[in-house]
Amino acid sequence: MSFEKLGLSEATLVAVRQKGFERPTDIQREVIPLLLSGEKDIIGQSQTGTGKTAAFALPIIEAIDPKEKNVQAIILTPTRELALQVADEIKSLRGRKRVYVYAVYGGQPIGPQIRALERGTHVVVGTPGRVLDHIRRGTIDLSGVKFFILDEADRMLDMGFIDDIESIMRNTPEEKRILMFSATMPREILLLAKRYMRNPEVVIVSRDELVPEMVDQEYVEVLPARRYRKLREVLTEDFYGIIFCQTKRETRELSERLRRDGYSAEALNGDMNQAARERTFKRFKERRTRILVATDVAARGLDVRDISHVVNYSIPMNPEQYIHRIGRTGRMGKRGRAITFLQPGELRKFRYIAKDAGVEVRRSSLSEKTPKEFRNEELESEYRRRWGGRRRRF
């Protein structure tokens, strides 16, 4: 199916072509007609990278009345980085239509945000805390909102934003469209939907589609002392990607070591102030930096096209974290490569992670044979013999 068959106007189709979109993704094919033709609320299950921003942005742009200088759509996101990305994506899709979009989030002076809202903004994208701050100050008026969107709703609930979300929702009109996008559907999401949504249409992207299909996945078994040397073998000239570390300290140390060895690398972690994080991400997005060494929290929601590689320098803690990491590459029909470094004793855990994530990960040719003194077979065998058959008591 083409975008032309979804019911979009010619002006919007021109903007879509300028973006280089050829065919709608699954979430776009389902959501766009529902938003254009119906009045129902929508729940969409979709990972980052499946095109969900365009799925709700294109119909909203069509519905915005530029002559009305009030907020007509409010989009809540869990992080500052995602708020900026969503705002930028909507701006790139508006074409010549005079739709004003602005992102509000904490960690930045509130004065410029107040002035932008006073001038007139049609679409506000923001984090719950800062949006609620503007409501309490009386610097944002949501009485004209037609669309209320929760992006990555499950992460917002995990981060404890449920009370803020409900407070913001109470400041919007009763008659509005509510859209909720979430990678998973925990009980809290369903309860929120039941409380505020009216017979919502549910659009579920299948599990197979949530797992990136265009990512070649492999793992490298390596001793701790040789891990950096193996990493350098991965960093070819065409490398443009993210290296995930477990700690902030590791991101700093690894990025500094890479720079000393002549690589274009920068760290991205939660110890950096918001302005520094934005500058770092901007340089990476513009390819002035080729390697981003990041923690999961700092990289959450990053949406950058054409990333060639994702490297798990530290093993992910669970299947969700693994899928989130490798989903940074292999996007929009382009192949990517995900490499996970495993130190002695981590292979068994990683196999469980891959199995639960529903992915197949092959052993890389870069892997080394683990010396006998680093193996844990005897210890694991003794553990299973003593405890494996017993039922745990709580």
UniProtKB/TrEMBL annotation:
Q: Where is the Helicase ATP-binding domain?
A: 33-203
| Annotated Gene3D superfamilies | P-loop containing nucleotide triphosphate hydrolases
List the SMART domains.
DEXDc, HELICc
Q: Where is the Helicase C-terminal domain?
A: 230-378
Q: Which domain of life is it from?
A: Archaea
**Can you say what this protein is called?**
RNA helicase
- UniProt key word Hydrolase: yes
- What organism, scientifically named, is this protein from? Thermococcus profundus
Q: What is its EC number?
A: 3.6.4.13
Motif (Q motif) spans which residues?
1-29
The question of whether Cytoplasm is a record keyword is answered with yes
Domain DEAD-box RNA helicase Q spans what residues?
A: 1-29
